[in-house]
């Protein structure tokens, strides 16, 4: 239905299929006081495989959006009773960002400046009614494609390329957010591989990289319910949220022992690695302070023969 009779549209068709697969089951919301318009847009979005809800005015739409954070796309008319499209967009942008929920504003032709105002209030795009089906599909597709691109970029900005773990940037942002929740007991642990330089010296940097990957997967499987980040070369941070110090200590010590007795494989040969751990309570302090304390504890662990935990 987008490609139709246009032979230039071959590449577009391929992009469309990719986008359709991505849309599949994504939630969308249509807000329009005209039943006819609403039904038409709903049907068109369903053709793009969206799971569509609808609302007959801004207030109803706002409520639906508040109740369902999974909605990825909002199409909103401008003129609606009780709350118009502008008010709706402004209100929604207080809790859903432009790269998290796509909004396309719509209104009748001949009203100058509506498109600009929609966009100023936070809409991603605009459509004039009546629209051609093809334009509708193209705009929805392009808007969703941009959202997906931003999500991909964000994801890669927060990941460590070698190990696939979260990176330092992610860790700092996540930890800052976590610290705002003062009611929760959290523990921060810094883990550093012991004598890792030997691996590089003995087997080469490439083998060192492989070892880092193996240690990372090991960490991932043992702490899959917590946030782990690679914050330095062979240094990792784990936040054990909602956990008291004693429980975290025992869990980290179990991990440390399991790691020490695990046979890693470096250049096909079994190799053992150990880690030293510094940990601290992670509540009602600044991130800088917590990091300093955990780092000091880690330093002490290194002084005490390594392969141990200091709090
Ligand atoms: P310690 O027990 O005191 O921590 O000793 P160490 O050898 O682990 O510590 P040091 O800080 O002296 O050396 C860390 C080594 O980790 C040096 C560096 O070459 C290596 N390293 C850091 N990042 C990477 C990486 O991405 N790949 C590889 N192959 N090696 C890395
Ligand atoms: Mg209307
Ligand atoms: Mg080290
Ligand atoms: Mg280190």
Can I get a quick summary?
This is diguanylate cyclase. The chain is of the alpha/beta class and 311 residues long.
Can you characterise this structure?
The chain is of the alpha/beta class. It has helices at residues 10-23, 35-47, 58-67, 85-93, 114-121, 133-157, 168-179, 196-203, 205-222, 245-260, 287-303; strands at 27-31, 51-55, 71-77, 102-108, 125-129, 166-167, 186-193, 227-230, 235-241, 264-266, 269-271, 275-281, 309-310. The strands form three sheets. The chain has a six-stranded mixed β-sheet, with helices on both faces. A five-stranded parallel β-sheet has the order 2-1-3-4-5, sandwiched between helices. Strands 10-11 form a two-stranded antiparallel ribbon. The longest helix has 25 residues, at 133-157. The protein is elongated. Bound molecules: 3'-deoxy-guanosine-5'-triphosphate and magnesium ion (MG) (3 copies). The site of one magnesium ion has 5 residues, from strand 7.
Kindly report the spatial arrangement of strands forming the biggest sheet.
Answer: 6-8-9-7-12-13
Hetero groups in this structure are: 3'-deoxy-guanosine-5'-triphosphate, magnesium ion
Low-pLDDT regions = none
Distance between the termini: 64 Å
Number of strands: 13
User: Structural class, from secondary structure content?
Assistant: alpha/beta
Overall geometry: elongated
- Largest sheet descriptor: 6 strands, mixed
Q: Tally the helices: what do you get?
A: 11
Please bin the fraction of helical residues: 40-55%
What Rg, in angstroms, do the CA atoms define? Answer: 26 Å
User: How big a fraction of the residues is strand?
Assistant: 15-25%
Average pLDDT score:
92
Order of helices and strands: HEHEHEHEHEHEHEHHEEHEEEHE
Enzyme class: transferase
Organism: Pseudoalteromonas gelatinilytica
Keywords: Phosphoprotein
EC number: 2.7.7.65
């Amino acid at each position: 239905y987008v490609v139709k009779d246009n032979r230039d549209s071959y590449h577009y068709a391929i992009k469309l299929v990719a986008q359709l697969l991505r849309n599949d089951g994504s939630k969308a919301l249509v807000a329009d006081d005209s039943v006819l318009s609403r039904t038409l847009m709903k049907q068109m979005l369903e053709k793009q495989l969206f799971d569509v809800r609808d609302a007959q005015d801004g207030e109803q739409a706002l409520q639906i959006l508040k109740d369902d954070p999974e909605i990825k796309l909002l199409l909103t008319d401008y003129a609606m009773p009780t709350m118009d499209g502008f008010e709706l967009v402004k209100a929604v942008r207080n809790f859903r960002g432009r790269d998290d929920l796509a909004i396309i504003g719509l209104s009748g032709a001949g009203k100058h400046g509506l498109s600009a105002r929609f966009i100023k209030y936070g809409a991603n795009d605009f459509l004039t009614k009546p629209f051609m089906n093809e334009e509708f599909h193209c705009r929805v597709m392009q808007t969703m494609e941009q959202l997906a691109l931003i999500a991909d970029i964000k994801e890669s900005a927060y990941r460590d390329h070698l190990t696939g773990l979260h990176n330092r940037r992610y860790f700092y942002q996540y930890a800052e957010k976590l610290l705002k929740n003062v009611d929760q007991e959290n523990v921060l642990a810094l883990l550093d591989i012991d004598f890792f330089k030997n691996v590089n010296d003995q087997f080469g940097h490439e083998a060192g990289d492989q070892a880092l990957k193996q240690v990372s997967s090991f960490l991932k499987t043992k702490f899959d319910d917590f946030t782990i980040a690679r914050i330095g070369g062979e240094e990792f941070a784990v936040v054990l949220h909602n956990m008291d110090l004693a429980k975290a200590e025992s869990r980290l010590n179990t991990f440390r022992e399991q790691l020490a007795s695990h046979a890693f494989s470096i250049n096909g040969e079994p190799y053992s690695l150990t880690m030293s751990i510094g940990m601290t309570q992670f509540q009602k302090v600044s991130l800088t302070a917590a990091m300093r304390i955990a780092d000091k504890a880690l330093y002490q662990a290194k002084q005490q023969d390594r392969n141990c935990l200091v709090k």
